[in-house]
């Protein structure tokens, strides 16, 4: 390993410890158990070497936002001998229907199911694979909800989720395990309100459906993960704070 790689790894190890400490404090503040929060390293802007460095300091869960990049990372890791068996990659970005087949069998969970149409398209492709014995379980997915209502954001509106839920639950190729959102940038009150909105929507859907469990709340990124944890996030998706030495934690 050259000097640069060594110092990058050292930086990453310090960051890993700092993130873990902050996650722990956020859990303490909100009376939550540390084991209820998972940290995802979003590796979309880095290469296989950086993913390996992250793995070696302790990250196990990775997120990618483009199907081809997910494949590239997995193919890269397949060339390496000491990859732990519990390393997992999720799909967190906008997914076009013509790219679904690329992620099936590769992404453990798809966080970005943003419409009924996409859910149906994923489900039908999974069902075909289940019948052919190419997959052995429905695809775990999260419903991406545009809680903040910003026009630039994709996802179901809360109203659309309520209206589509019965149809979504009929889809045999997917298992809906929770909800995902992205907060607006900047204003901390709006950020918090977005995470609260996600949790309350989840509580409402579970209450209305009775037999529906949506344990997973995927929310919180580099700038707002501590607020997200305080408001119930079970999975924070961290990119820059993990991989970019120039990113400064507040
Ligand atoms: C890039 C990305 C992240 C991570 O963002 P950072 O601000 O770098 O932590 C999280 N979620 C999604 C969907 C992303 O595309």
Q: Can you give a write-up of this model?
A:
This protein is an alpha/beta fold and 250 residues long. 46% of the residues lie in helices and 15% in strands. The protein contains nine helices and eight strands. It has helices at residues 3-29, 48-57, 67-78, 100-103, 116-131, 158-170, 188-209, 225-230, 240-243; strands at residues 38-42, 61-64, 88-91, 110-113, 139-144, 174-180, 216-218, 235-238. A four-stranded parallel sheet has the order 3-2-1-8. It has a four-stranded parallel sheet with strand order 4-5-6-7. It is globular and about 55 Å long. The two termini are 31 Å apart. The site of pyridoxal-5'-phosphate has 13 residues, from strand 8 and helix 9.
What features would you highlight for this structure?
250 residues; alpha/beta; four-stranded parallel sheet; 8 strands; binds pyridoxal-5'-phosphate
Task: Write a brief caption for the model.
The protein is 46% helix and 15% strand.
- Our count of helices gives 9
Note poorly predicted spans: none
Separation of termini?
31 Å
Q: Helix share of residues? A: 40-55%
Major β-sheet strand ordering:
3-2-1-8
Total number of strands: 8
Q: β content, as a range? A: 5-15%
Average the pLDDT over all residues and give the rounded result: 96
Ions, cofactors and other bound molecules? pyridoxal-5'-phosphate
Shape type:
globular
The helix-and-strand class reads alpha/beta
* Major sheet details: 4 strands, parallel
Element order: H for helix, E for strand: HEHEHEHEHEHEHEHEH
Radius of gyration, in angstroms, nearest whole number: 18 Å
